[in-house]
Design a protein that fits this description.
single chain; 132 residues; mainly alpha; 2 helices; 96% helix
Length: 132
């Protein structure tokens, strides 16, 4: 009977020892899991930071590109406007010169309709030419 108690005691001690090892193993696994979770969180945070940085870079590049494109478009529009303005000014000058010649021609015809007026004009031109 003592032998049976001894066996029972040994069995209980082995069971307790086994339970202690299992408990230690569970604690170690829990610790390892917490460590893995923390590493995963850190990695997630790093990935999010990198993604945000990349998104910000892309946004800034897009702004810069849009600014360059809009600046080029504005410069091109200014050049076209200036070219059109110069063309309009040149056309107006031509029209003014043409109208001036027509007006001068009509005035000359009216003023030089008789011989006396023509002689006076010729004499006036000669006198002015002599002064110069």
């Amino acid at each position: 009977m003592l032998d049976a108690i001894k066996k029972r005691e040994t069995s209980i001690e082995e069971s307790l020892s086994s339970a202690e090892r299992a408990r230690d193993e569970m604690a170690k696994l829990k610790s390892d899991n917490e460590k893995l979770l923390e590493e995963a969180r850190l990695e997630r945070d790093n990935i999010l930071k990198e993604a945000l940085a990349t998104a910000n870079n892309i946004r800034e590049e897009a702004k810069t590109d849009a600014s360059k494109v809009s600046g080029k478009m504005i410069e091109d529009a200014k050049a076209v406007i200036n070219s059109e303005k110069q063309s309009a000014i040149a056309e107006m000058k031509e029209q003014i010169a043409s109208l001036s010649v027509e007006i001068a021609e009509k005035l000359m015809r009216r003023n030089l309709s008789d011989d006396k007026s023509q002689r006076e004009l010729v004499n006036q031109f000669i006198n002015e030419a002599n002064k110069n």
